[in-house]
Predict the structure.
Amino acid sequence: MAINVTPIAGLDPAINEVRLRTAELVNTEILPNEDVLWRTRRGEERSQDERDVNRRRSLEMRESVKAKVFEAGLWAPHLPREYGGAGLDFLSLAYMYEILAYAVGASSLFGIAAPNSGNATILVKYGTEEQKRRWLLPLTAGEIESGFSMTEPENAGSDPRSIRTEAVRDGDHWVINGHKWFTSNGVDANFFIVMCRTNDPTGEFGPLGQMTQIIVPSDTAGVNIVRGIGIFGRERSDHCEILYENVRVPVANTLGRVGQGHEAAQERLGAGRVFHCMNAVGQMWRAFDLMVERARTRQVHGGLLRDQQFIQGFIAESYLDLQSARLMTINAAQKVAGGDADVRTAISAIKVFVPAAFHRVVDRAIQVWGGAGVSNDLPLSQMYQAARVLRLADGPDEVHKILIAKNVLRRFDDGVGWNFGS
Ligand SMILES: Cc1cc2nc3c(=O)[nH]c(=O)nc-3n(C[C@H](O)[C@H](O)[C@H](O)COP(=O)(O)OP(=O)(O)OC[C@H]3O[C@@H](n4cnc5c(N)ncnc54)[C@H](O)[C@@H]3O)c2cc1C
């Protein structure tokens, strides 16, 4: 299987070039090697020795692909060159992400896996020179890992004002106490960016100005990982529940200014949502290709699946989902790139529509593949879970729908209304 990418007429030639360069890597280095790269998922190993050998082979293969990505000038494309990235602009990134997402898991091979990529972006914008040297450069080089610790079990993640984890000044240190969960990558992280409630004496950052992001090295005394929360029936994951108990870190670890935490988080999530959606489009594209391939070749009841109208309905409906999700996301990316005033409405719209469309397409692809569809031999079951999570993470559907409706109503209240071009 290969991703079929040709230049898009009228698109900036530099973006087309990035698209083709990415597709070349995906087609030559990743797709043909998927079995080795992600070997442990197939469950064929009969012994621990076999598992160890395969794990070593996959790690070596991953390092070799990363080196090729680096040579091709596409490593950490979201970061400026001075910090080890490829320095691509927003629109190039959006077009690139859909292509590399075709190969499930490729984001880690391009240095853009969450939450490291979002943390790096925030460090570039808000970090001091010392923070960049200590955390950003090794993070970009892939030498260390990180987590973003915002959501709490006792308070609604959909309502950032409810966060209770507290940081209190004690001389030139912060003392942090709180309870977080779903901190992704928590098992491997060398540091966390922790969203804390602080006292903002200036009131400069408004009603949400009680939030501050603080960098906490994971080996600091009092950082207690309770568990990797089991999800989707798996015993454990790297989405961690963490207790921060009298954790002392220097005030120099404050990321941005005191009270700026909410603003920084919004910035991270805003652009991040476009990338999540382009990523979903790429995966949908793969699921679509897999579905069509199976429909063209699978014999049932003396004929091919492709000739059954139920299956033709799946193909047509998936085509509509894929095209609409893709065009909406590109439209939102163009609005972000162009600094459009209504960009938040566009971002919320894709954050609702795309994960649901992704979910539907993968669901149909699984159906067409029958039992194989839910096996680990295909990437579909992994995609299915990713699509479901995406309807919650970075703001559940309901919160985004409320925002869309409020923005639309405000435009009408202001006498502007909505126009057909936007
Ligand atoms: C796999 C995974 C990875 C994650 N990774 C991270 C991470 O790295 N770091 C991190 O900090 N967090 C992470 N999260 C947490 C995620 O961001 C939160 O789960 C999400 O923000 C929702 O918060 P909550 O779970 O507290 O749900 P709640 O806020 O309790 O909301 C529950 C439900 O209530 C409904 N709801 C909420 N508000 C409204 C409303 N106004 N009107 C109507 N209905 C409403 C929605 O249906 C929502 O799903 C992750 C979550 C998952 C599942």
Notes: The domain at 263-413 is CATH 1.20.140.10 (Butyryl-CoA Dehydrogenase, subunit A; domain 3). The beta strands are 146-149, 166-170, 173-183, 191-197, 211-217, 223-228, 240-250, 254-255, 299-300, 303-304. The CA atoms of residues 6 and 217 lie 45 Å apart.
